[in-house]
Amino acid sequence: MNTFRQWLLVRPGQRENAFGPYLQEILRAEGLTGFRTVNLDDGLPELRADDLIVLTRCFLRVDEMERLQAAVEAGARLVVLHPSILLAHRFGWEPQKRAVYPGWVRTGAGYPGHGTPIQTHLPIAAFTPSPGVETLAATVDAAWDDAGCPAVARQKVGKGTVVFIFYDLPKAVARLRFGDPELASVETSAQWYWTHASDLFAGQLDDRVLDRPQADFHGQLLAKLLTDISPVPLARCWYYEQIAQRSAVVFSSDDDWSTPDQFRQLSDALVSHGGKATFYLVKDTRLSDEEIAALRAQGHTFAPHVFLPDGEELAYAFPKHMEEETALLKARLGRLSVSLQMHRAPWLGYMTWVPAYINYGYRLLMSYLSLPPQNVNRYMCASGRPMKFVDQDGAVHDCWQQPVLSYDDQTLIPAMTADPQGFVRKFADILRPAMEEHHTTFGMASHPVSYATYSKPFFDALLDFIVAEGVPIYNGDDWCDFNDRRNAVQVEQSVEGDILTCTVRGLVGMLPLMIPVNGPATVTVNGTPAEGEIIRRLGQEYLYVQLNGDGGEISLAITPV
User: What order of strands is seen across the sheet that includes strand 339-340?
Assistant: First the structure.
């Protein structure tokens, strides 16, 4: 039996490779969990003709280039991100000695994000290919005019295949999701108290693409490229817990001194739709211990809604009040939620507070709201899905960024009360593509006092619409738990004749495995015949197998019929 090997090559000691290791997070977000990260400074592994290799942006020694080229000529498949001039030249590319900056990517038909171009906020290096190269995505400029060079191209080399991505894809995802680090601690919105995460996005939110989850498209594009060139069917973990699930809602709710009855109204609406919320309680909440216990019995969870008073610098107020309010509520309730949203959603710096949040026990942050109000129900972070925070030096923080797309707020009262159905239609316009095309997640937030006084028509219609589409509603804890469990799964693959074996380790709970297929196949799980369902998603046919693990090893065998 031949083990299928997948390599992610990084060289983090080089500044150009700062975001190289972050590509592992993007691969795992796309359900590709079989890649082994190798630091090239520890040595390039011995490569085989049936290996699948991703080389992140870095500079190689001559012998490393020779070995990579030889492996491809023998049959290996290689994806190269932002290649160096010397490496590209080895494969027949000539530099145009220019870059398109900021570069946009127009993917070809059949590839994620096809249609309207997607942003990178980065330079795309301009190269001229040799004959026989297939352009999979074109580079366009900010006016969407063709720039005369590919953004993504594929070519046959000997018995193997090389795909060149002429920009630093993981850095583009980070920039889209987390904003411009040069705007850290700078107020840009002119509408809010203090600085917010939304201030990091001034100047990069292009209204033409705010309804598209561009960061998701970059990750899905990479996954599609790898799936297409892989020498064996490339197994992936589905985004959600069950085969039929195509999206998810994560619901948060800020106390803001709401009355117990207002909490009950919002809770009843959620529970009647099969949903749960995490409530963030102010220090002097009006809820009694008995009322909190009753809400907790309905599946809701709780964390502090930390309030930083006016007149104090955020840099000093944050640690003082975070520590105090976390300790107070923990002493009252015992266990707290691992998710958090602070009052007025302040955000200082770029990643400055993330290590502190982790230190206080919080691992899923709802701080990135689609602000200002004209961005509600739109992708400020170019995604609705959770992703680990990453700093400018490439350091990955064990904490999930969960964007919030839909919410109620005082600034929205005029529009929300005048045309609640218009807000629902706007939400539907982004939910439908999520269900049918890219399957992103939706963070939502409603204050009990807001729901009870003006936003009820909007959220009731929204919840009806979500449930009709079969989308479950999670609280912050259940959602963080699922993503932690999914992130822990490892899938290894091997081939013997026509039989593909997938060995799944670390799965606790439910998660479907998806394998690209060209027709019917039989499936066994741990030697027992199992059900498989062929569904067309993400632009191709996948065989879905529902798994339910207890942490032990699961073996799937897939045989074409």
Answer: 339-340, 364-365, 396-401, 387-390
pTM beyond 0.85, yes or no:
yes
In the chain, the N- to C-terminal Cα span, in Å, equals 20
The answer to whether the CB of 339 falls within 8 A of the CB of 364 is yes
Rounded Cα distance between 268 and 171, Å, is: 42
CA distance 292 to 302: 9
Maximum CA pair distance of the chain?
Answer: 74
Is residue 415 scored above 90 in pLDDT? Answer: no
- CA distances for 407 relative to 276, 323, 377, angstroms: 16, 27, 8
Of all residues in the chain, the percent with pLDDT exceeding 70 is 100
Q: Within 10 Å of residue 199's Cβ, how many Cβ atoms?
A: 22
pLDDT of amino acid 411: 83
Rounded Cα–Cα distance for residues 403 and 368 (Å): 5
Strands in 35-39's sheet, in edge-to-edge order, are: 35-39, 6-10, 52-55, 77-81, 160-165, 146-157, 134-140, 104-107, 118-119
Domains in the chain, CATH or no CATH each? 2-237 (3.40.50.880), 249-484 (3.20.20.370), 489-560 (2.60.40)
Query: Which CA distances in Å does 239 have to 89, 438, 554?
Result: 38, 10, 19
